[in-house]
Design goal:
Helix 1 packs across helix 4 and helix 6 packs parallel to helix 7. By secondary structure, the protein is α/β, with parallel strands linked by helices. It has an 8-stranded parallel beta sheet. The protein has a 3-stranded antiparallel beta sheet with strand order 1-2-3. It is 34% helix and 23% strand.
Length: 326
Amino acid sequence: MLKLAIKSESWPIRGSFTISRGSKTQVDVVVVELTDGQYRGHGECVPYARYGESCASVIETIYSFQPAIEQGLELAELQTLMPAGAARNAVDCAMWDLLAKKSRCSAASLAGIDSLTAQMTAYTLSLDTPEKMHLAAIDNAHYPMLKLKLAGAGDVERVTAVREGSPDARLIVDANEGWTVETYQQIVSELYSLGVEMIEQPLPAGKDDALKTLDRPIPLCADESCHDSSSLIDIIGKYDMINIKLDKTGGLTEALALKQAAQAEGLDIMVGCMLATSLAMAPAVIVAQGAKVVDLDGPLLLEKDRDQGMLFENGFIFPATPALWG
């Protein structure tokens, strides 16, 4: 019989992190441990207030399923037992980690991938004034791809400032639902001229039907509009890509299924993350193999990472060691 343990942790952010919905100076995560007495598996999730989650609610949710989890249910059973979201993500990833350790086989191999390769990851610049984002772009010009948090008014000036500060970087932008249709129409051509390669979630989820009729000179990526495979029916025709985050899909199992289903519909793949430690990035790297855009920079934005944290080098994230996960 398995034993379940859950704890919450707080990790300070370097400075602060700002998007269109607000700022924060620390990230709060929930960590699940599953042990069979010999092996231990771990998973990390980030409760997100945007989806009505908190550390307390996630912990309560997981504990409510403790008897079934400790009885050793299968990964497939977990998908029907718990709803998608952060709580299931932590449990799902802990189950993958435990299974890999017990079988003495990597999680990637269990997922049908012979070996993992390092992936180029975007580095995120927090929402700020054009002047401060210009300085941030200069400081981080060594990254091959920068992701800019935007909000609406002043966004062209922000992108222009970053382009001037980091002229050789590839640029993607994330509005975090902060634009209107009018904003999009006013600035999309200018963003195209500035070399922006992707726009993430320009309009609020549930209020993005207008994207079906708007010109899309820059590929659009669904984030808040895409959670798990059931989201795809409302995405096709509006977006060109989806951002797969394990905290939305409810773990690695559904993330892999969503990736396959989306590609079958002709959608490109982005793999993203919440602000979190390397323990949360490790399973996401499996999904990131072959993705068009990878955005797994969470640990780089923290004051410190976990022991045995993942290696970031020259803008690339390298697969985790077994000492961390999988």
